[in-house]
Amino acid sequence: MGTNGSTMLEPLRQGLPPIDPSAVSSSVSCALPARYEAVRGARQFTRSTLGQWELNHRFDDVALVVSELVTNALRHALPSDAAPCGSAKEPPVRLHLMRWTSRLVCAVRDPSHDGPTARESEEDFSAESGRGLLLVDSFSDGWGWHPLAGSLRGKVVWALFRLG
Description:
The protein has helices at about 5-10, 10-15, 40-50, 60-75, 125-140; strands at about 25-30, 95-100, 105-110, 145, 155-160. α3 packs antiparallel against α4 (about 60-75) and α4 (about 60-75) runs antiparallel to α5 (about 125-140). Strands 1-2-3-5-4 form a five-stranded antiparallel beta sheet. It is globular and about 35 Å long. β4 (about 145) and β5 (about 155-160) form a beta hairpin. The protein contains five helices and five strands. The protein is α+β, with helices and mostly antiparallel strands.
């Protein structure tokens, strides 16, 4: 019944609008290396997954949001003080795509415990982060984040798309 991924995403599922778990038709994930080229890989993974799910028409919006979430995750996964906490075992960033009958969720896991916030411009990258979250907010039907539970370090940031 439970896989590693579903356990990790339990807080995510609890934070989503009520969704019948039996309506989950598909769930995939891919590990991303802690390099900025990973954004391109995340977009390719998203394109092929949406193609398999016959959701190509949603690619532009979903890929834009995935790119922003992965970029933000890498920004927090890349600093050397983010610890080699398990970097040998598993890349620090992971992208999950989950499809329900009427919803699609993209979720990105990273090793930072800090929640994503639109900061008031302290530095350039902060302002950029804020803009990224505005894009996520504009192109998705909702987003949020949750710290990971148990022995897992970091957080999951997710965005929801309604499928019509």
